[in-house]
């Protein structure tokens, strides 16, 4: 149970003070009854809340899938460039959202945005064994020897990388890599260590959750509970 003024503020119905004014004006109802006190406790996933007659879709927590485009920062704010949060439409944005793990500015693909710190920690902790699958475009073909080096775990400069799976596609310059770490520029640095350079990188999946092919770059949508569970399978 949570205070109704806090929940509505988190869902962008205004500041806590502004939401309090809405409530005292009688514009907010819960299960058909007008609310007068901002500290009323509600269950945001069971109680029907309406603001000025419009039903409010409320959640205790938000988990979004985004198809991150190139050129956008995986950050909550930045004074120099556009961030992934800037791409969200008003109906999906709420205070406290952050990217659960980062993709480089020029890397595209599946990105999770959430306001649930526990979920992000579970997803990113190496001991959780949540694998991420990337598709990499290289400047020259990868070799079976590269795949063996990835499988052993390799040293990429000062970065020690755990074993990873490198698989080949029908295109000699396009490969896929599964890692369970998320170190800075990791996939790019691993290929650099075996004499290849990544020219394009896209994250395809996290755990068994795959990027929705219907999401265009820059678009996002809510995850279902079943989809969220796929992250940890």
3D architecture notes:
The chain is α+β, with helices and mostly antiparallel strands. Helices cover 20% and strands 28% of the residues. The chain has 6 helices and 17 strands. The chain has helices spanning 4-10, 16-24, 117-124, 144-152, 186-193, 225-230, and strands at 2-3, 28-30, 33-34, 41-42, 49-51, 54-56, 63-68, 98-99, 108-114, 132-138, 155-156, 159-160, 165-168, 174-179, 198-206, 209-210, 220-222. Strands 7, 8, 9, 10, 13, 14, 15, 16 and 17 form a 9-stranded mixed β-sheet that branches. Strands 3-2-5-6 form a 4-stranded antiparallel β-sheet. The chain has a two-stranded antiparallel sheet with strand order 1-4. A hairpin with a 2-residue loop joins strand 11 (155-156) and strand 12 (159-160). The radius of gyration is 22 Å and the shape is elongated.
- What's the oligomerization state? single chain
Structural class: alpha+beta
Percentage of residues in DSSP E strands: 25-35%
The N- to C-terminal Cα distance equals 29 Å
Catalogue the unreliable spans: none
């Amino acid at each position: 149970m949570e205070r109704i003024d806090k929940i509505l503020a988190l869902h962008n119905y205004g500041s806590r003070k502004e939401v309090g004014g809405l409530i005292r004006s009688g514009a907010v109802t819960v299960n058909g009854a007008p609310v007068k006190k901002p500290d009323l406790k509600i269950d945001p996933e069971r109680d029907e809340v309406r603001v000025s007659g419009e039903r409010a879709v409320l959640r205790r927590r938000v988990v979004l899938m985004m198809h991150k485009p190139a050129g956008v920062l995986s950050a909550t704010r930045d004074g120099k460039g556009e961030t992934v949060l800037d791409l969200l439409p008003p109906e999906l944005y709420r205070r406290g959202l952050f990217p659960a793990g980062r993709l480089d500015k020029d890397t595209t693909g599946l990105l999770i945005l959430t306001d649930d710190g526990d979920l992000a920690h579970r997803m990113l902790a190496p001991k959780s064994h949540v694998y991420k699958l990337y598709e990499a475009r290289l400047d020259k073909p990868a070799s079976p020897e590269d795949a063996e080096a990835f499988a052993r775990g390799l040293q990429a400069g000062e970065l020690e990388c755990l074993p990873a799976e490198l698989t080949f596609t029908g295109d000699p310059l396009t490969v896929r890599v599964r890692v369970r770490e998320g170190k800075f520029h990791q996939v790019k640095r691993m290929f650099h260590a075996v004499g290849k350079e990544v020219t394009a990188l896209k994250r395809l999946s996290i755990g068994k959750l795959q990027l929705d092919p219907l999401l265009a770059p820059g678009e996002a949508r809510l995850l279902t509970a079943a989809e969220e569970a796929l992250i940890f399978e």
